[in-house]
Amino acid sequence: MDANKTKTGKLSRRKSFSLGFHNQAPLVLCVAGFLLIVLLLMLNRQVVFNTGVWSEIPMKYWMRDANDNQAEVSWNVAHLKRHPPKKPLVVLLGGSVARLSVSIGSDFVSAVALNEGPQIEALNLASSSQNFAESWAIIDNLPDTPTTALIGVSLNRFAHTQEENFQQMGGYNLLIVSAATHHYFSTTYGKRRPLFGLLPGIFKYIITFPCRRLFESFFNLHLRLNNNGHLRNNDFATREKIKRYHVQKWLQTRTPQFNDNFAFNALLLDQMVKYGIDRGINIVLLELPCNSELIGNALDADFARMRRLCQDIAATYRIPYININDQFSLPNTAFQDIVHMDKDGGVIFESALAEILAAMYRSGAIEKQ
């Protein structure tokens, strides 16, 4: 008896399904491909992503590995749309520096309350290499709950290229639909709305899911990494050598990128702030931590350019601009490199931010409702 057949002589359903992939008839393969595209487009429909319905499946099932903060942020944004908080909401936006520097969790919420601020809910919506287009997409999808968005600014965020920002239109890193960014890029730069919406991002997510799961399982790399994928090194001399190397690397490679892309990102940040204010969101510009003790005056020109911009935007739209680097002394020992803080440094920065935020609520600089 054929091994693929049951006792009744018929092919088992499992075997018949698998044999379908060996079918060489062009018409059958075309029909199968068409049905696959239809299925993906159905997943891409606004009813799935605009409403956040996919977040009804717990986050842990969407995570490609323990460090998948991009999937985590996408899920949290979708979940906020489905279940808006009843208390004032505070969110932090930015790249890995924001991800590591402030946990924006229960300790932060308690610290705001202890400093005579209101009872709030808070989420860290920063993700690795998050550009301003991705931050704008998040702002576009925040709920109507009274919300304060802390937009993290750093030299690195102004070095992202136009193409990296344009990729958010297809959900390349964050699976978030944003009509506002689509409109801005189409009217300002002539970028057409992607024909298939988030399909590029969905394909990337599907393809990388098994790879990242297997990588984590077999090599267990996450045990040697911190919560955002930056390698730790406990040898002081080695750490200091790596830190000095990062300063030189920035001067050689990132400063040219910063200069080339600054104007594009400056306008993008300005328009994102304007859009957030028009939505009724409290916008706060937050300069993210940097290792000033180690950097010295090597990056003074870059910092001066960024700070002038932030001061101008803050003055134009009458919003707060927080620069904790100038207000508090953050020692070299609190940093893993020139920008990423270690756990102890993060506690210092988070405590200072909670105190400043509470004072803004008390003074009315930030509206609670």
Which helices and strands appear, and what pairs or packs with what?
Blueprint: H1 13-20, H2 26-43, H3 46-49, H4 69-82, E1 89-93, H5 96-101, H6 106-114, E2 121-124, H7 132-140, E3 147-153, H8 162-166, H9 179-189, H10 199-219, H11 236-278, E4 282-287, H12 292-295, H13 300-317, E5 321-323, H14 324-327, H15 343-363
Parallel strand pairs: 1-2, 1-3, 3-4, 4-5
Helix pairs in contact: 6-15, 7-11, 11-13
What would you say about this model in short?
The protein is an alpha/beta fold. It is built from 15 helices and 5 strands. The protein is globular.
Can you walk through the features of this model?
This protein is of the alpha/beta class. The chain contains 15 helices and 5 strands. The chain has helices at 13-20, 26-43, 46-49, 69-82, 96-101, 106-114, 132-140, 162-166, 179-189, 199-219, 236-278, 292-295, 300-317, 324-327, 343-363; strands at 89-93, 121-124, 147-153, 282-287, 321-323. The protein has a 5-stranded parallel β-sheet, sandwiched between helices.
